[in-house]
Amino acid sequence: HKSVLNHLNRFQEVTLYSCFASGCISAVQFYLLSESECKRNWVWNQFFVLEEYTGTDPLYVGKLHSDVDKGDGNVRYVLTGSGASSIFTIDEKTGDIHATKRLDREEQGYYTLHAQAVDSKTNAPVEDESEFIVKVQDINDNEPKFLDGPYTAGVPEMSPLGTMVVQVTATDADDPTYGNSARVVYSIIHGQPYFSVEPKTGIIRTALPNMDRETRNQYVLIIQAKDMVGQMGGLSGTTSVTVTLTDVNDNPPRFSRKSYQYSVLESVAVPSVVAKLKAADADIDSNAEMDYHIIDGDAHGVFNITTDEDTQEGVIFLQRPLDYETKSSFSLKIEATNRNIDPQFLTFGPFSDTAAVKVIVEDVNEPPVFYPLIRKLMVSEAARVGTVIGMVSASDPDSSSSAIRYSIDRNTDLERFFNVDALTGVISTAKALDRELNSVHNLTILATENQDPSQVGRGIVLIRVMDINDNAPVFAIEYETLLCENAAPGQVIQTISAVDKDEPPSGHHFYFSLAFSASNNNNFTLRDNKDNTASVLTKHADFRRQEQSLYLLPVLIVDSGSPALSSTNTLSVRVCDCDVDGIPQACGTVAFSLPQGLSTGALLAILGCIITLLALMLLIMAMLRRRKAPLFLEDERDVRENIVRYDDEGGGEEDTEAFDMVALRNLNIIRDSKVQDISPETASVYPYSASAISRTSYKTLPDNIVFQEFIWDRLKVTEVDPSAPPYDSLQTYAFEGNGSVADSLSTLELPSSDSEQSYDYLSNWGPRFKKLADLYGNLEGKYIYIYIFV
């Protein structure tokens, strides 16, 4: 070592290598100083330690030694720094350093330590502290890894040989500066012979030309990366690469057939779809887009074709109406062409195809057709009823050529001004026309087939009513003419114009003049301005409102028609009190003024008298209204029914409060009590005494007989009672027996035939009781039930 020190400068680093059978490793590394400084400094044996040591004993790292150490134990070595005591230990006497733990270079590649020699007794430093580095020496313990895998890539189909697809990269955690542990080479395990990979770069390329997506569109490759330059014993890692062949336009469209045939009804409306056809294209997306064209055929302008962008079908639609009788079939030649053509594949052939299409028109029963569809006619408003205006014509377009019947759609002629002959189609007037009410009539004429009434054709007839001079001119507006009292003679007080409902071809021209009755008018004159207006002028001044506040001036207006018509219109002229500027202040009749001799007190006295008279009248009316109505209705008044409603709901047979059933079953007690209740005043009214109406005890009779006897007794009492009303009394006994053998309960049928009760007075009650009088008049053999509610 001294020879080396003599040739090296200070702080130079020298690494010596020893070669063994397993290869060359770094054996010794020195930090060298100048010879003068080296006399009292460290001597190092070793600075490297292998990673992943698997032995059981601590791994020897190196030895520290100071030239001060004489071997007598007076020097003690101390180790500090990264990993001291936890990973690295030092023998205080010998200076030997050992690694006590398994090291991993990928976790930490080196450790920085500090060494110092101290006196073993005083712990005083005998040397300055020195720093050294222990490097962890790499071994091949990490396989290559594809951190970005798995990969997906795409390459256009039909690509040439060697087209780059994608580059894969594998990383190795081992030391790339030491040995071949991190030197990776690539190879393809699965995916040949379609693709290859460059060993050093990992670039994947196509290995076959003209790969067709339509044959196979996806490939899965397995790529391997191996360290140690691919030598035996190296570690390896793999990844997958999915390669998809992207589409190019290398396939032309093709029709599945060379000819197509479709049928369509002649009644199909424009622009209905007639047919759809599609050319197949093995490509996808934009490379399969195509356009369709009609390049030949005998349907000039009848059909057209367009592309359905969603399905790429050719849609044939109608452009003009079809007519089976005119042409029953059409022949078309359709071409389908790719929309996006790639020039580099033009050698594959023309990117288009053609097909023949035949369209058969089917006959349908069509409604009649008018020729022309819209007909214009004219008629004078003076035309008489039945005047022929014109004629319409319709025909059946079908080969059957059915007969036609004409009619008017009355929704278009609500007032029935016109008629049409059902067989000939002649249109005539049915009412007098008035152009001023309706100048144009829009009629819809219906043409119906006799063979099939459901087939109805429609035509339009526009009838224009021509004007005649049948309206006289009148004032254009209602004029309000105001005349100032101080108006000067010859002053224009009003300019008038006229209107006429007629419309002469040359326009209106009106003539104005005063009516014959006013031709000698001393107050006003009329001047025709020759422009369909006229001016009214005063003849004198000093008009007085008190003398005459209103003047009526008759004006004659004549039109220029043939014959000419005229009308007399009255112009009202009101005399007004005007200010100095000629603005009217008060017009019309002068208001009445009170006589000057009537004072305010007199007016108040008159007003007081009027108020007093009104108060007396109101008092009399109030007293009359407070008169009470009579308690009883007079005979001549109407008898009205009064129905009183109590809203009581009974309890059926369980209701024992309304009627006591026990009382009905003890009729003897009831009868005796009733007889005893009759007062001396009323006893003479009843011809039957208590002894007379006593019979067999009711207790010994069955229920039906009991009730029958009781009811007959009641009937007899009611019959002879002079105070009994002339109507039946309906009483309900809430008891259900074994079946009633009693006959009618009405007093109209009494057991005694010598009843003195007479109902002749019912006939005197008026027509309202006539029916009742008839019913009571003849009672033999009748059962009458009458219920009168009062």
From TrEMBL:
Spans through the membrane: 602-624
GO terms under biological process: adherens junction organization; calcium-dependent cell-cell adhesion via plasma membrane cell adhesion molecules; cell migration; cell morphogenesis; cell-cell adhesion mediated by cadherin; cell-cell junction assembly; homophilic cell adhesion via plasma membrane adhesion molecules; morphogenesis of an epithelium
Alphabetic keyword roster: Calcium, Cell adhesion, Cell junction, Cell membrane, Glycoprotein, Membrane, Metal-binding, Repeat, Transmembrane, Transmembrane helix
Residue ranges annotated for the Cadherin domain, each copy included: 66-146, 147-255, 256-370, 371-475, 475-586
Pfam families the UniProt entry points to: CADH_Y-type_LIR (PF01049), Cadherin (PF00028)
Gene Ontology cellular component annotations, sorted alphabetically: adherens junction; catenin complex
Alphabetized GO MF terms: beta-catenin binding; cadherin binding; calcium ion binding
Localization per Swiss-Prot or TrEMBL: Cell junction, Adherens junction; Cell membrane
Superkingdom of this protein's organism: Eukaryota
Coarse class of the protein's main subcellular location: other
Membrane topology value: Single-pass type I membrane protein
SMART domains reported in the protein's UniProt record: CA (SM00112)
Function per UniProt: Cadherins are calcium-dependent cell adhesion proteins.
Descriptive protein name: Cadherin 7b
